[in-house]
Amino acid sequence: MGLDRTAGFDMLVQISENEINNQLATAFLAGDIIPPSMVVPINTGGVSGNADIIFNTPIADLDRPRAQMGITIPFANSQLDITTPLSITLSPLGGTITIVDSIGMVTEGSTQICRMDFTSGAPTVNVDFDAASEVLLGPLLAAAGLTIAQAQNMMAGVVLNELQTNIREIDLTPPIGVFDDTDTTQPFDINVTTVNDTSAADRDCITFGVRMMSDGGGNINNITSSMIPPGGQSLVMMSNFWLLARVMRPRIATSLGRPVTDFDTPLRLNRSIPAPGGQGRLRALEARVIGNRIAVTGRATDSGTGWSAESNFTFFIDIGLSGGAITVTATTPSVDTDVDLEWWVWLASLGLGALFGGIVGAIVAAIVLAIVEAVAEGIANGLITDGITGALGSLPAIPLGPIGGGLTLDNIILDDLELRSSIVHSLSVPIKTQGSFRSNNNFALDLDTGVISSNTRVSSDLVWLANQRLEAHASAGLTTTGVSYRSLTPVQVSRMPLTSSYLPLAAIPFTFPPSHWFLPHNEVVFGVKTSEGRFAKVRAWRDLTDGGELNIDWITFDTAVASLDIATRWRVLERGEVTEYITDDCSFCRSSPVSRCGIFEAWPRLMAFPVDMEWCLCGHVLEDEHGEIEYESGTISYKKVGRRLYLETELGQDFKCELCVSAIDARGRELFTCIEINQPGIDEQCRKCSDKAPQYDINFLDVKPELAQWRKLIPYKIAEQQEEDVIY
After folding, report:
1. pTM for this prediction
2. CA 82 to chain centre
3. Which of 336, 303, 330 lies closest to 316, judged by CA?
4. How far apart are CA 130 and CA 93, in angstroms?
5. In CATH, what is the architecture of 242-379?
6. Residue 265 pLDDT > 80
7. Distance between CA atoms of 297 and 267, rounded to whole angstroms?
């Protein structure tokens, strides 16, 4: 038996680097684990301000010392907004942030989580600006006496502080329940390490060693290679010893009505017991893993007056896969019976065939049932999903990655028991819109809303010009692919260039509908980045039976999109004469005319920097950097500094109107947003009147006669205490 392949653990789980990256990419598009953008405060080396960073899909790599993992997060179209020692904005900036830290299992209550914990020690952080950013930063850094390397180190320090202060950790598995009980199919403890495959195949993986019992063994450092088959995503391996000794042995003992102590580990009968299913004794029974099957051998005996018989039997158990489910089958037993007769005993009168047939049949049934309960229905239940519907069962009891939710089996290998499988993700990118449409006429499709119109609109993403071409409108872009429409994932779409502006008519197949089963059907499949920044997959074909009518199907994924917000803060600049008064409801009030200063900051998110902003106040476009506008109650002064707008009112001036900001980014995308301003010129502050101290009514009552005689006891007691105080 290949006991060394699991390094002494009961179960081994390996997840390929490629699968980890697929899970990270899916989680990133779904807005989980790592945000699509971040505003990081800068306050280091005498420089303060903010860094507006727009991230692209993170990439994990395991080309590191054991057990470290690197995560590289590309950023692009980002901006440095420096306020001190001088006010300057630098964009667009791009490059990479690489974070390297150890991964480990963390215990929280009755669960364990595989985690990169940035607060336990200091992760290694490197920031590398791309060539264009270095050219942009060069003159400023030279004037400040800094080099690119120093600037990158400064940014790395800012990122490190953000990791340890706010982000703190990245979980690489969901919480996994661990139990210290007698259930041999529930994890007791989990270890983790990484495998860095330095060969040309580069089959790096994360490896989890799982103990199912407190007395289990295992050394995670003995796992030095990936056992995932080439092109595979994951591997779940169960040790032969654990499968036979811990899982099957107690079940077989129960099936035969015997205590588990009748069987040595891994699975061998250690004494003679009554034979099941017939007469006689079962003298030997042993199960071993040989090749890709379980071999079972045994010996049964029986005797009577003038005769004795011995039967040796062998059969094999095969564990396979059919229709996405585990199957357990037994071969026809090979039975060799030797009968010893006295000369006077007639063979025909014994009926020995039925005797040993019942014994062997009972043993086959007991062992097959034990394997079915332990493997097909026990261990694998909750790990394996329905291969047809993809519906998840219960959550897995083993680590399958950041968003691993179950397994779809591809193959089963025995010795040790391997479940070669694909991981089903528990998190998917939500769908914004989906639909189908067909037409012989021109039309426009807004993939973000699913709205179809006969004329092209500003929000349209695809425009069909009948018998000419299919265009990507405005800032939308597309890329064709050879992947089928059903198989194309949002992660695959996000990795496409998505820069083409149209599909020529010849690229859209002129074909039979798919409903014509025995006739050829073709379609073009392509990914789209919509005008709002979402990803979509689309397929199109022209109907050969209906004059070239265009048929189009789409699914738009609800990924993060650009947005624009206004942050507001007000303060009082000047206060006039204060008037004090008390209201009818006994509130004490102070009232005074005030002059106010409003600070407004535009916050573009996921917009490609540099971003050109234009403010509009009370219907007036603020074109100059500073100035005044006339308002019905007086003059409003303003000043623009970067993406901030400062407003100042006159003393006692009411101010109520609309403030809007429009932003156009480096890709030509325009967003705008508005807020209502309503600031009175009189500041009134009131508080309710309240008594400083509570008042009580005191009523005196006559003392009952029977209580009057108790009064002298009190001074006596006090006198006694005073005497004790003097003595001591």
Report:
1. 0.74
2. 34
3. 330
4. 8
5. 2-Layer Sandwich (3.30)
6. yes
7. 11
